[in-house]
Amino acid sequence: MRRSTWMVAVGAALAVAAAQGVAAQAAHENSQQEKMTTCNTDAKTKGLKGDERKAFMKSCLSEKGASAGSAAAAPSATLNSQQEKMKSCNADAKTKGLKGTERKAFMKSCLSGSSATAH
What we know:
Layout: H1 2-46, H2 50-61, H3 67-73, H4 77-96, H5 100-118
């Protein structure tokens, strides 16, 4: 009887640990999906295609984007200025504490060049 109680306790502990791992993985996947959706939307808004889109997506999906790596991967100076604009708009949105649809709307307006009215 004592052995079966111990096995039940161990089984319950393992189930809790597994559930926590699954929850953490799901949260990570959701943030990655959000990031992918945002990057796709931004690339579409900018009208990027081919190699420019590929370079932009690589930079956008990386955590903070290594300055040396993304500069080497960028096919043109225009993309570098877009990356700078993206960093600036992200920083402004973070400072303002924007989330969800408000953040998306702000980012769209900021990246399209009408950021003077959004500040």
